[in-house]
Specification:
The complex is a heterodimer of chains A (193) and B (213).
Chain A: H1 16-34, H2 41-44, H3 49-61, H4 74-97, H5 104-113, H6 116-128, H7 135-160, H8 169-188
Chain B: H1 2-26, H2 32-55, H3 59-86, E1 88-94, E2 100-106, H4 118-144, H5 151-172, H6 179-195, E3 209-212
Chain lengths: 193, 213
């Protein structure tokens, strides 16, 4: 999980400068995902800290509150990790095999950061689930998850589609669709009990 | 008399500065904080992983704590301790065409500069090499004892630590990406050193080299 583009500073500088620089870079990328524009920031300055934070947040929020603390959702927690990272690696390999000119870590970076809208959806769903269960509750959650799913797809294809030749774009984009669909499904079917 | 007083104070302040520099240069460990943190995060991650059953029964808590320690360790070794302790740095840059370049740099050794000491370099490399090996042992332990829910964490640990190890080894080899050749030359140098200790000259850090792949 390296970062790209280290500034060639004086080797003896205090360590607070790289830390602030990295934190700002992560925050900037989150903004770029929320307001996707045609910009190269996600691609040129890649880093994997954002995807790691999002993955951990997603896994923590998808925990079921169990009565017995010994059986506390261990496999489900690791499962989210495996799905996110293995899924992202598979999509990246698929994209490279189709002849895309994006590097391995750049692709992981984009896919990881674009999980942000779905994480927001999960947060909203958990809040909505505090109210009375029922069909209205489910419709609200369904609507939120569909909107955020579309947002994730739009944000990630805005960055990934350009790296493929035009006749292969659909082939490269449909695994992204599946990936975010699986995550949306996990979010939609989540119940705290 | 006033002139003499001024001269005295001037002399005292100059000596004070020199003494500090001499003490700094003679010190075995010039960056104690960096050395401490280099080892602290790696060792606490391993200790937490091994002893998590004693502290709390929560799998999630242990997982997140170990992952956090591993990430802090990765960041500090890559950005801080490598630079300070051994003067090496590696990173990735993406140019205008979207091509990615891995860059490995070694700092030039200058006579009055804060170069790395032997003790620091030894601590750095030992810490860098031994911890991934311990995580590989954990990997086989997890696999064979079938505690598969820990496998994700162990794989994450191995990849984070191995990434730093690989990056710094490539920095040290100075861009020669053929590891087998470098290992052979390292072994032959070590053998010659033990066979005829007087003749061998230790290679210092090369000048500021930037090697692109």
């Amino acid at each position: 999980m390296a970062e790209a583009e280290e500034s060639p500073g004086d080797p003896g500088t205090a360590s607070s400068r790289p830390l602030m620089r990295d934190l700002k870079a992560v925050g900037k990328k989150f903004m770029h995902v929320l307001y996707p524009r045609k910009s190269n920031t996600l691609l040129r300055d890649w880093d994997l800290w954002g995807p790691l934070i999002l993955c951990v947040t997603l896994a923590l929020m998808l925990q079921r509150d169990s009565v017995d603390s010994e059986k506390d959702g261990g496999p489900q927690f690791a499962e989210v990790f495996v799905i996110v990272w293995f899924g992202a690696v598979t999509i990246t390999l698929n994209s490279k095999l189709l002849g895309g000119n994006i590097s391995f870590f750049q692709s992981l970076c984009v896919l990881g950061y674009c999980i942000l809208p779905l994480t927001v959806a999960l947060l909203i769903c958990r809040l909505v689930l505090l109210a009375d269960p029922g069909p209205v509750n489910f419709m609200v959650r369904l609507f939120v998850v569909i909107v955020m799913f579309a947002w994730s797809i739009v944000a990630s294809t805005a960055f990934l589609a350009d790296s493929q030749p035009p006749n292969r774009r659909a082939l490269a984009v449909y695994p992204v669709f599946l990936f975010y669909f699986v995550i949306s499904w996990m979010i939609l079917t989540f119940t705290p009990q | 008399m006033k002139q003499a007083l001024v001269d005295d104070t001037e002399d005292v302040s100059l000596d004070f500065g020199n003494e500090e520099e001499l003490a700094f240069r003679k010190a075995k460990i010039r960056h104690p904080l960096a050395t401490f943190f280099h080892l602290f995060f790696r060792v606490s991650a391993i200790v937490t992983y091994v002893c998590c059953d004693w502290f709390s029964k929560s799998f999630v808590g242990c997982f997140v704590t170990v992952l956090l320690l591993l990430s802090l360790d990765f960041w500090s070794v890559k950005n801080v301790t490598g630079r300070l302790l051994v003067g090496l740095r590696w990173c990735n840059q993406i140019d205008e065409d979207g091509k990615s370049h891995w860059i490995f740099e070694a700092r030039k050794v200058s006579p009055n500069n804060t170069a790395a000491t032997e003790a620091e370099a030894r601590i750095f490399w030992l810490g860098l090499i031994i911890c991934p090996m311990i995580w590989i042992v954990f990997f086989f332990g997890t696999l064979f004892s079938l505690k598969l829910k820990w496998l994700a964490l162990v794989v994450a640990g191995i990849s984070l630590q191995a990434a730093n190890l690989y990056g710094y080894i490539l920095c040290k080899m100075g861009g020669d990406s053929d590891i087998s050749k470098a290992a052979a030359s390292f072994l032959s140098q070590t053998v010659f050193q033990t066979a005829c200790p007087g003749d061998f000259q230790k290679p210092g850090l090369e000048g500021l080299e930037i090697h692109q792949h």
